[in-house]
Design a protein that fits this description.
Strand order of the largest sheet: 4-1-5-6-14-13-12-9
Structural class: alpha/beta
Radius of gyration: 18 Å
Strand content: 25-35%
Number of strands: 14
Shape: globular
Largest sheet: 8 strands, mixed
Number of helices: 9
Helix content: 10-25%
Distance between the termini: 31 Å
């Protein structure tokens, strides 16, 4: 059986440092990727994952519905809306280019899956910089973004609370005792969304794992991370880590079901 094709966009960044040694100083730059643990876990799964780091996505993320439709689902993880809006041809050369947020909405409407995973540039993000609020991507997600910085840091950790039924396809075999997490993006629920897990009651039982539909497509919001720092080593080592994300992808790419929303 052929594997389902997934496009994972985001999860990369470059850090710069200045090293000062007495009178002398010098700069360095380092490149990082944040999905290494997830990609390793899904390597031998039912999914063929194309990883497109954020700096590549600015130019190479699909610019038409035909190219997007080559994938059964798209995952946006820690990648701001501006990266998809500002193709270099527009940003540097002032040329019109397709609005890829609108393309994603059309893609879901016609049956594609869309998942957004949390991070500093997911949902509304740090200082509101991810900027998905009131965009076509927010239109299809099962949650709405806040109008400001939505990060909630939980350095002491919180235990997720499973609220969905044990037989839900995303929750099967995961039980209710999940390892702690260290943060999440705060969002609000849309009518008709299904909440499968929340953060702890200490933090208002806010949404952690939410599913929804739009047109013929399915959408998933996971408001914590896929790796460090909000996902500590204990969560990655958990035997449910791989299964959780596999089952999210499987649910989002399931076809032949009734249209409930448009």
């Amino acid at each position: 059986m052929s594997k389902k094709k997934i496009l994972l966009a985001g999860e990369s960044w470059v850090s710069t440092s200045t090293h000062i040694k007495g009178f002398d100083q010098f700069p360095t730059a380092t490149y990082h990727t944040g999905a290494d643990e997830l990609l390793a876990a899904l390597k031998d799964s039912a999914f063929d994952i194309t990883f497109m780091p954020a700096h590549e996505a600015q130019r190479h993320f699909p610019q038409n519905i035909e190219a997007l439709s080559a994938y059964d689902a798209v995952v946006l993880s820690d990648i701001g809306a501006n990266t998809l809006l500002l193709h270099p041809d527009t940003w540097i050369h002032s040329k019109p280019t397709p609005n890829r947020l609108r393309l994603l909405r059309d893609y879901v409407q016609s049956g594609g899956g869309l998942l957004m995973f949390g991070g500093y540039f997911s949902f509304q993000g740090i200082n509101g910089g991810a900027r998905y609020r009131k965009t076509p991507v927010e239109d299809v997600l099962p949650v709405e973004c806040l109008a400001f910085d939505d990060r909630v840091e939980v350095p002491e950790g919180y235990t997720p609370v499973v609220t969905g039924t044990a037989d839900h396809p995303i929750l099967q075999g995961l039980g209710t005792q999940w390892p702690i997490l260290l943060g999440y993006n705060e969002v609000t629920l849309k009518p008709g969304a299904e909440v499968l897990a929340t953060v702890s009651s200490d933090y208002g039982s806010q949404p952690l794992l939410v599913t929804g539909t739009h047109g013929k497509g399915r959408t998933v919001a996971w408001t914590s991370d896929v790796g460090p720092h909000w996902l500590p080593p204990g969560f990655i080592a958990w035997d449910g880590y791989k299964k959780l994300f596999e089952q999210m992808l499987a649910w989002a790419t399931e076809k032949n079901w009734a249209t409930t929303k448009g």
